[in-house]
Write a structure and sequence with these properties.
Layout: H1 11-24, E1 43-47, E2 51-57, E3 67-71, E4 74-81, E5 107-114, E6 125-129, E7 132-138
Antiparallel strand pairs: 1-2, 2-7, 3-4, 4-5, 6-7
Length: 151
């Protein structure tokens, strides 16, 4: 039985562009501190009828250590991922790695998001689990869609 596989030849270009943007930050935002960040976490941004949600990949970072600020409609996330402590053997002795390959970036990170006018900045909540920081930004009551009945 023959199977058809659909290929998206331009998907690789879009992915490359995303990686370049993440690596160098936005050239349109001169105040972005991504130029001083040592790595930039991946973020999914979702919009629901009642809220916005940011899902930030931060494996190896304690969610409580992430600095989250909101100033003049700009939500900023910042923190640091440090090298893991040396592992100890079952006999209690510290062991050094004989070989090492590091692919995870360490150091400071920073992301900024301009919130829309519909965001309720007074009720932003954040929680973290399994290496993902979830920031929930409710929409203002007047911004939520509502059904209007005709009399």
């Amino acid at each position: 039985m023959a199977m058809m596989i659909r290929r998206e030849p331009w998907a690789a270009m879009a992915q490359l562009q995303d990686e370049i943007n993440r690596a160098f930050g936005s050239m349109e935002d001169p105040e972005s501190s991504s130029a001083t960040a040592e790595w930039i976490p991946a973020v999914d941004v979702r919009e629901y009828a009642d809220r916005f949600e940011l899902l930030v990949d931060l494996p190896g970072v304690d969610p409580k250590s992430v600095e989250i600020t909101l100033d003049n409609g700009v939500l900023s996330l910042g923190g640091e991922r440090r090298e893991a402590a040396a592992r100890t053997s079952s006999s209690g002795e510290s062991s050094a790695a004989l070989q090492q390959r590091n692919e995870r970036r360490l150091g400071r990170f920073h992301r900024r998001f301009v919130l829309p006018d519909t965001a309720d900045a007074d009720n932003v909540k954040a929680s973290g689990r399994d290496g993902v920081l979830e920031v929930s930004i409710p929409k203002q009551a007047k911004a939520k869609p509502r059904r209007i009945t005709v009399d």
